[in-house]
Write a structure and sequence with these properties.
Elements: E1 4-10, H1 14-25, E2 29-36, H2 43-57, E3 63-65, H3 79-82, H4 105-115, E4 120-124, H5 129-137, E5 145-151, H6 166-170, H7 172-179, E6 185-188, H8 190-193, E7 197-198, H9 200-207, H10 210-220, E8 226-227, E9 231-233, H11 237-244, E10 249-254, E11 256-258, E12 269-271, E13 283-289, H12 291-303
Parallel strand pairs: 1-2, 1-4, 2-3, 4-5, 5-6, 6-13
Antiparallel strand pairs: 7-9, 8-9, 10-13, 11-12
Helix pairs in contact: 1-10, 1-11, 4-5, 5-7, 9-10
The protein binds alpha-D-ribofuranose (RIB) and calcium ion.
Length: 306
């Protein structure tokens, strides 16, 4: 069976680093392109981090640099969670700069999508600024996109604002444009991210699983997405897990809107599970995950890396 072609849009980012590794070393996915966007840290830093990861993983995937700012919102990073560099805790090799395309991420995505013989799956694990611009500038790409499988949003509460998740809160307007694009979307939000945990004993096992496992262990020591002792949240791996192990999830098809004008709730994903808004469903929302099975899946996936 041919591998599923995907594009990962990312802001590495400690949890991004592991999600990217799992995708690259899986038998089922063909990562055609990695695009970067400002989020956890600045665009320059997340791009450098993506190139460092590809050097470390020994994988030659083209990288295209995207947007340095959200469409309208003021840019606020998450260096408090991921460290100043965005991947604090491990001494990576130099970035593989020869993988960096001269094209802007939006143009590179358009080229890869339109050249593909098979519809492409887009995997945003960051703010969706690049994706929103892609649809605005090149709506023809929608005809060759299988679906969007994103990490972001929340059915319940936030991790950036009271009701807003970081990726959506970083660029709410972009998220609204993507949810309104008509392209099939799968949303893996905080409700599953909070249960997608690496526990201390998992970290000790992972440490012995080769150089990626050792790297993960050292990054985990610095990662503030949860706590080393009560569980670290592997948010971005939830999107990859949907592609590779969808049976982990409970999924509900419903309407998702993005609040843009709330004085206290801007960036909130309004997940209308009961249909109060009487709008056509526009997303499959992962409302639950089998946390124990995720832990096993995650460790097995890391064990397949170098
Ligand atoms: O809310 C979690 C998301 O924000 C993850 O993608 C993490 O990497 C940060 O970007
Ligand atoms: Ca991310």
């Amino acid at each position: 069976m041919s591998k599923r072609p995907i594009i990962i849009d990312t802001d590495p980012g400690i949890d991004d680093a592991l999600a990217i590794a799992i995708a690259l070393f899986s038998e089922e996915l063909d990562v055609k392109l990695i695009t970067t966007v400002a989020g956890n840290v600045s665009l320059d830093l997340v791009t450098e981090n993506a190139l460092k990861l590809l050097k470390f993983y020994e994988k030659d995937v083209p990288v295209a640099k995207g947007c340095a700012q959200p469409l309208l919102a003021e840019f606020v990073d998450a260096s408090d969670i991921h460290g100043k560099s965005g991947m604090e805790g491990y001494d990576f090799p130099e970035p593989k700069t020869e993988l960096l395309l001269q094209e802007h991420a939006v143009n590179a995505m358009r080229r890869v999508i339109m050249e593909s013989d098979e519809p492409i799956t887009i995997v945003p694990i960051a703010a969706m600024t690049n994706i929103a611009l892609l649809f605005a500038l090149y709506p023809e790409v929608k005809s060759n996109i299988r679906e969007i499988v994103m990490m972001g949003g929340s059915v319940t509460r936030g991790n950036k604002g009271v009701m807003s998740e970081f990726n959506v809160a970083t660029d709410p307007e972009a998220a609204a444009m993507v949810f309104n694009s008509g392209v099939p979307i799968v949303m893996a939000g905080l409700d599953v991210g909070w249960k997608a945990l690496v526990m201390p004993q998992d970290s000790e096992e992972i440490k012995k699983m080769g150089k990626v496992g050792d790297m993960a262990y050292h990054l985990f020591k610095h990662y503030r997405g949860g706590s080393f002792n009560t569980g670290l949240k592997m948010y971005d791996s939830c999107a990859i897990a949907y592609l590779l192990c969808p049976e982990l999830y409970t999924v509900e098809e419903t309407y998702v809107g993005v609040e843009l004008n709330g004085t206290m709730t801007t960036g909130c994903t309004v997940v209308d599970l009961k249909g109060y808004l009487k709008k056509k469903p526009n997303a499959k929302v992962c409302t639950d995950i089998d946390g124990e099975k995720f832990r096993e899946w995650f460790k097995q996936s890391i064990s397949r890396c170098i």
